[in-house]
Amino acid sequence: MAESLDIIQKIDSDTRFGATGQILPATSRKDLKNWQASVQDILRTLQRPRYVASGILPEFAQIESRHYFIKGHELPPYGKDEWKGDGTEAKRNFPWQKN
Amino acid sequence: MLRSTLALLSISNSIQAFLSPKVTAIQRHTSSLSMSSSTEIVRFVQGPRVIRDELPIVYVYDHCPFCVRVRLALGIKNIKHTVHFLANDDVKTPTKLVGKKIAPIFVSSFLHLRYSVMNLFTHFAACIIRPTYMYTFYRLYLKIIWSWRSPLILFRK
Q1: Which of B2, B16, B66, B79 could form a disulfide with B42 if both were Cys (CB 3.0 to 4.6 A apart)?
Q2: A8 to chain B: which residues are within 8 Å by CB?
Q3: Same domain as B91, residue B117
Q4: Do the beta carbons of residue A80 and residue A71 sit within 8 Å?
Q5: B10, B26, B45: which is the final residue of a domain?
Q6: CB neighbourhood size of B121 (10 A)
Q7: The model's pTM
Q8: Which residues form the domain of B4?
């Protein structure tokens, strides 16, 4: 999760990339995180299908890329294990889990 | 997506939230409309353009908020760079760079030697150790190597 911030920190502390210390360090605010968690399902169901299916974004320009994304990103009623397979693997591997 | 984010930020002037007070290029002036003098609009002004001989490359997805974060920082610092949009099913390119499919990846043009030597080490370790019973140690070695490179920043030269 912190990788992008690592990159920014590295860029911002290197004099070869202009003046240093231009960007404040992360605040790790809890309220923003909580809000993000609260709208996560809505974003997944409303936003994701649209920006993936449109094909406007360069990473989804070709159909294989879109299929790859859909396979790796489960939608709310399903868990990760159910999403990847036909639903039988999850029960077989984790019989104690309710699906 | 980045352009719209930047546009949004410039409209709401909330870009100041990302910037430290050390930035000297920022002009401060009090809004005439505001009732109290404590609320002041800080206008962001980009610093001079940073153009290096070998441009840094960022490997990103356009929809990925973490990638946008890095691109925003490059925009704030006004660094000229090459944007490489990875196809979403492209596993090879990022794996070659940092060992797994992940974005953003920032490739800059320093410390190329360290990068290539490390690749060489990894290659030899793969050749020598893999057929022996030390396979688990080899896995561990690879894990350490990749974890050391984990900030996903590759410095070449």
Answers
A1: B16
A2: 69-70, 73
A3: yes
A4: no
A5: B45
A6: 12
A7: 0.63
A8: 1-45
